[in-house]
Amino acid sequence: MPATPSSPTSPGHVLALLRATGPLTRLELQELAGLSRVTLTERLEALRGLGLVRHAGHKESSGGRRAEMLEVDDTGSTALVADLGQSHATLAVVDLRGTVFAREHRRLPLRHSPTEVVPMLLDTGRKLLRRTGRAETLCAIGLSVPGQIDHDSGVTVAPPTMPDWNGAALREPFADALGVPVLLENDANALAFGDFRALDRPAATLVGVKVGTGIGAGVVISGRVHRGVSGSAGEIGHLRIEGSRQLCSCGRRGCVAAGAGGQALARELGVRTTADVVRLVGHGSPEAIRSTERAGRLVGTVLATMVSIVNPAHVRVGGAIGVLPPFLEGVRRGVESNAHPSALRDLDLGPSRLGENGAFVGLAGLVADEMLSPATVDAMVAARQEV
Ligand SMILES: [Zn+2]
Questions:
Q1: Measured in angstroms, how far is the CA atom of residue 155 from the centroid of ligand 1?
Q2: Domains in the chain and their CATH numbers?
Q3: How far apart are CA 214 and CA 234, in angstroms?
Q4: Which of 129, 154, 221, 269 is disulfide-compatible with 135, CB 3.0–4.6 A?
Q5: CA of 237 to the centre of ligand 1 (A)
């Protein structure tokens, strides 16, 4: 008999247990799920039918018996993920573990619009799917954008530098073209979730900061992205700093981004782009290193407040500017001299370790949480049983 979606002993829930705690032996899983041997066998058969569970070797037990271990197979399904920025778009084909099979980077013109970019993303995405031979297993699309997302309507509040994206409904064109669900996420949230996944600690609390052209932060509390009521949790880039009068791209004065983002640094150093700033720091320009360290300190001061409120175990700093050593040093000093000492005691603060794949790993994780959720898995089991 098919399990009802709400049943705490359904196949979807067995998979959720295995995702959270696996690899496990059958007996361990049986005890954890509180199921009879027969029912567990049924559930596992349903999950195997969907290619979601696999052998994970054997466990030696006392008395020399070897028990078969089981784990979630999150490598069979494919997601197309894209990270959209103010001056670039990067696409990748990944599995639900975040393994990148192919990727492509595209530079975008200033003030680009969905009318030109969405068809390009779809074209490139289809090409990547063909190249990897994984089109058949495509189960979802994940898209990260530098703005706030209304998660009910799928509409973005874009940054002022991307006015044509403001109010754009982004799910429909992708869902219509590729016939799979579309997940949207703020770019800093996606990066923070990627760093969380890389920790491999399901209940960890982490604050991720992304400093590229602009500045944003994402908060992962006990393994879940905390988005807030309007999707703006962690939007630290446009907090205003007392005493600062610098004009920001948002039209206001004194924002953190106006003093510490890549765009602000480029202006200060008399170069054109964030990439130019990265190059200057790489070449050891004392002026660039000084400015970058000062920018890091400013971000660290704001971050100290977040650290005191959220009290995370981990802080990861990513983005093209964020991972520069002088920036990171500035962040560390800013946090250490301003946060509450008790919030610093066990704080692990460091650079994002995922490099250019950070957003992809995060998006793959968000797709996995959605597509491997008990409700989705139980619906897939039911659909299979009806055939
Ligand atoms: Zn601003």
A1: 21
A2: 11-74 (1.10.10.10), 78-190+360-371 (3.30.420.40), 199-358 (3.30.420.40)
A3: 13
A4: 129
A5: 7
Helix, strand, coil share of the chain (percent; to 5):
45, 25, 30
CA of 188 to the centre of ligand 1 (A): 16
Task: Measure 89 CA to ligand 1 centroid, in angstroms.
Answer: 23
The string of pLDDT tens digits covering residues 25-50 is 999 999 999 999 999 999 999 999 99
Question: Long-range pairs for 35-41 at CB < 8 Å and ≥24 separation?
Answer: 35/9, 39/9, 40/14
> Ligand 1 centroid to 227 CA: how many Å?
20
Ligand 1 center from residue 255 Cα (angstroms): 5
- Cβ atoms 104, 124 nearer than 8 A: yes
Interval between CA 300 and ligand 1 midpoint (Å): 17
Peptide bond into 312 cis (omega under 30): no
Write out pLDDT tens, residues 278-327: 999 999 999 999 999 999 999 999 999 999 999 999 999 999 999 999 99
Q: Give distance in angstroms: CA of 95 to centre of ligand 1.
A: 36
